[in-house]
Amino acid sequence: MLTKAENELLTHVGPGTPMGELLRRYWQPICVAAELTAEQPKKRIKVMGEDLVAFRDANGGYGLVAEHCSHRRTSLFYGFLEDGGIRCPYHGWLYDTSGKCLEQPFEPAESMMKHMIRHPAYPVEVLGGLLFAYMGPIESKPLLPRWDVLAWEDGQRTIRLQETLECNWLQAQENSADVTHTYFLHAHTMKMRGLGGGDYFYRPFEQYGFQPFEFGLIKTWRYAGKEQLGPEVGGGNPLIFPNVLRQQSGPWHNMHWRVPIDDNHTNIIVVNFRRNTDGHPEEQPEFPPVEFTSEVLPSGEYAMDSFFGQDKMAWETQGPIYDRSTEHTGASDYGIALVRKMLLEQIGVVQDGGDPMGLVRDPEQNHVIELPGWFMLEGDAGMLRERHLTSSSRDLSAADGLLVERHKTFDVPFGAARPAPSTR
Ligand code: FES
Ligand SMILES: [Fe+2]
Fold first, then answer.
1. What is the Å distance from ligand 2's center to 244 Cα?
2. Which fold has domain 148-409?
3. Partner of 223 for a Cys bridge, out of 130, 203, 291, 362, CB 3.0 to 4.6 A?
4. 156: β partners
């Protein structure tokens, strides 16, 4: 449970709010780069309560500026792209991509006013088919992290855009540390509807644990019982701080960004990467294929036959901004408590003038940042063994020990182990 004040602190994301300032220290995906075309080179985007216009000029350069002109607030969405910048459609003020005002056509030639204008504008970069923006203080700008699913070349990448999540971003992100929700929300729902796809999760938990690491929080879990559906008896995956989930399923690797549109709406962007079986580089299209999905039926009810629809139901029905002062959290909510604690701590770090956790500043580290993911396998002697799958089940033996090599501070699984409450 949080106090109302703490709840506001963690959920309000506009400019100048403590959480908004923390989130702005991390590069955020704002749209699919392919959405900006020669025919439609501008797009209105709202991010963390700020109305913005993203654009791509004729030379392929990208920009992101505040939508409303610094002169008299007309929308730059209707502006003209010129010389890598954008000219307001009303009186022609011209801005470059850093927000400098280069021209004010109807001001006296000797006027110094344009030099005093700094229109809000943010650096953008394309990676993995997404356009990322950095909206924090420019002097603190870190590198855009080259997460594995964005940077790998030994396979194929796809992007999934879900319809807008009609609630606060933290409801989705807390779910990244919610180990037990898979049993009822996903597996039991599937079973009750006579659908497949949830069997792997239809087992009670025996144990789970969490461990902070360089980029966030790793969770691991193990199922109880011997009713095996395959060789896996558990798994592990990381929450990437502050608003990303990383998952793995066989050769599929994915990241889910939960980017606040405003306090009550969230943009969910998923990048999937399927690694090939022998590690050879594959030709990458300029823009990966994009899938748009809806999880709401024409009747207005949630489509409860998919994991995405089930999660959307769970998060949105908590309310537009879930009031955590009215909840009753228990032992099984330990991961959620950890996420909140980390967020509060890192808000404090930023307020004290420091760098929050997990920023990437070393180009050497940033060729490809490989993130961990596990299936846990039942060994011959009945002992639990954890394996880091680098591309597919084919790699099981070859990948032994890689995790420890890459992340020497790890001591998972079950960094802070909890016995799981019984689920049946
Ligand atoms: S409102 Fe943009 S130039 Fe006047
Ligand atoms: Fe889920």
1. 14
2. Naphthalene 1,2-dioxygenase Alpha Subunit; Chain A, domain 1 (3.90.380)
3. 203
4. 274
Tokens standing for residue 305: 């036959």
Residues with CB under 5 A from ligand 2 (ion): 311
Q: Which helix (H) or strand (E) holds 338?
A: helix 334-351
Give the residue whose CA is nearest to atom 1 of ligand 1: 72
Could you state, in order of their start, the residue ranges of all structural domains in the chain? 31-140, 148-409
Token pair in block for residue 79: 């502006």
Query: How big is the CA angle at 182 (ends 329 and 219), to the nearest 5 degrees?
Result: 70
Atom of ligand 1 nearest to the CA of 74: 1
Task: Give the residue among 27, 29, 19 at the shortest CA–CA distance from 267.
Answer: 29
Tens of pLDDT, residue by residue, the chain (424 residues): 899 999 999 999 999 999 999 999 999 999 999 999 999 999 999 999 999 999 999 889 999 999 999 999 999 999 999 988 999 999 999 999 999 999 999 999 999 999 999 999 999 999 999 999 999 999 999 999 999 999 999 999 999 999 999 999 999 999 999 998 998 999 999 999 999 877 878 888 877 888 888 999 988 887 876 666 666 777 888 999 999 999 987 788 999 999 999 999 999 999 999 988 888 999 999 999 999 999 999 999 999 999 999 999 999 999 999 999 999 998 889 899 999 999 999 999 999 999 999 999 999 999 999 888 777 666 433 333 343 333 333 233 333 332 222 222 334 445 555 555 554 4
Ligand 2 centroid from CA 212, angstroms: 21
Query: If you measure from the C-alpha of residue 182 to the centroid of ligand 2, how many angstroms do you get, rounded to a whole number?
Result: 6
Amino acid sitting at position 285: P
